[in-house]
Amino acid sequence: MNDTTICAVGNVATQPMYRDLATGPSARFRLAVTSRYFDREKSVWTDGHTNFFTVWANRQLATNVAASLSVGDPVVVQGRLKVRTEVREGQPNWSSADIDAVAIGHDLARGTSAFRRANKQETAASPPRPEPNWETPGGDSAGDSDADSATRADSADQHRAEPLMVT
Q1: Which residues pair with 19 in a beta bridge?
Q2: Cα(141)–Cα(137) distance, rounded to whole angstroms?
Q3: Per-residue pLDDT tens digits for 92-125
């Protein structure tokens, strides 16, 4: 694929907005990423320009974002970068940078975090399916009797998997 994958380190700038959509859970928040550099003339660290990204999370990641993140949290976000340019409110060349997140986590270089494994949603258990018979009948097939062939055919029918119905 020709996606631009990035890793951004910054702070959560807005409270994550969680939505439960028909396609599944979705969450978004703004991420502020400020570069820092050492000013040798003043001998101090100085903040540079701040970039803002809209981070989108889907499915289980969205649920975990809503339960784990709040404004000001230092985070590391990995995902696909999408830059859009539009005409908005009569002003051309309005741009936004979005990150379709694959992974999000607290930045442990700036604090600690206690991890809790998320409970998996219970799905309807599928009925057990018989294991197919993968064994090749042994012996010379030319010397097999018709009764043996019929027995193998019945055995193969018993091991044929039924189509799985998803409800």
Answers
A1: 26
A2: 8
A3: 777 889 999 999 999 999 999 888 887 766 545 5
